Amino acid sequence: MVNRNSKRLGQERSVIREIFEYANERKREIGAENVFDFSLGNPGVPAPPAVNAEIVRLTEEMPPLALHGYTSAPGAPDVREAVAAYIRTAFGVPMSADMVYMTCGAAASLAVTLRALCEEGDEIVAITPCFPEYRVFAEAAGGRFVEVPAGEGFHPDMAALKAAIGKRTKAVILNSPNNPTGVVYGAEELSALGALLHDAGARNGSPVFLIADEPYRELTYGAAVPYPMVHYANTVVCYSFSKSLSLAGERIGYIAVSPRCAGAADVFSAVCGAARALGYVCAPSLFQRVAASCLGMSGDVEEYRKNRDLLYSFLTQCGFSCVPPEGAFYLFMRSPEPDAVAFCERAKRHELLFVPSDGFGVKGYVRISYCVERAVIERSLPAFGALAREYGLIG
Ligand code: PLP
């Protein structure tokens, strides 16, 4: 009666969303101040002041049709040019407006890009742990999703990637700063990966693309985030303003196809076609313009840094083992028992809500989103302490 795969996806729901819904229910039952919800990557820091100023200015000054009406399918021409100019200036890449497609956030950027690149049976490689929706988007595009475990310190394992990339590999998805580990990949790693993909493409006689998923680019604590297009020609950047500008609910981002990419014009045409087929044309008009005026900006990263430092130092003092995050706003913590789902259930009894790593493609860890108000973290510390005592990590 209905599409079986769509029905399954609709009924399964994402684990993260499931916990978020539970948190809301629990808040209604026992009061919001008694629930410590670290489930969702919903940015808690306000949007930069320039965002609000621009919304006010645009709503006051722009004629209604230009403000709220349809733009061209790939976005308003001046917005696409602003994005291209920003990429040229910030990263030294010869980006042009006709390689930029405005989208409804990174999710749409990824879904469209995968649909644009994938033929039935093509393989899409991702490094685990990774954002759980990659599999959904890749399989919806007809691809076969291939997971390659990260290596030391959750950095890419080049030998494992090399072994996993074969004749049917169409693309590798890379996400730095990383959700869920907070790790940032360096320039040398990107160069090494670029060389590997170049060789694989030469062997296959068709390019192996790098899909750079970059919603956390601006959210780092000192680490430089190299621009993937500088290191590898066949790159498509999937960007989002959800996290940098704290605009997650407004659904705005873009796809930028490297002009140095093999068959760049064809790749861009396929992006246009995929966006059309998926109904993702003409991203929200007002927020296209807001984003174009706030390129490269971010909310107050210092607030996230303070959250990170407070939580990281308390949890490690309690005997928990965490990956030191260099970017994004997630702590990836080793579960003190092998079953991270069971650990999350135990934590729930202390009203601590976070996400088991199983959905990210690895076992034995949990993801703690610290993009919450500081007061939530402060109030949660006794509960984390009690949890550590329960596991005998502290006396
Ligand atoms: N990619 C990663 C790594 C993410 O963490 C997220 C959201 O959390 C997305 C993509 C989707 O972002 P958006 O809200 O812009 O669709």
Task: Explain this structure.
Helix content is 44%, strand content 14%. The protein is an alpha/beta fold. It has 2 domains: 4-47 and 299-390, Aspartate Aminotransferase, domain 1; 49-293, Aspartate Aminotransferase, domain 2 (3-Layer(aba) Sandwich), CATH 3.40.640.10. The strands form 3 sheets. Strands 2-8-7-6-5-3-4 form a 7-stranded mixed sheet, sandwiched between helices. Strands 9-10-13-12 form a 4-stranded antiparallel sheet. The chain has a two-stranded parallel sheet with strand order 1-11. The model has no long low-confidence stretch (mean pLDDT 96). Bound molecules: pyridoxal-5'-phosphate. The site of pyridoxal-5'-phosphate (PLP) has 13 residues, from helix 6.
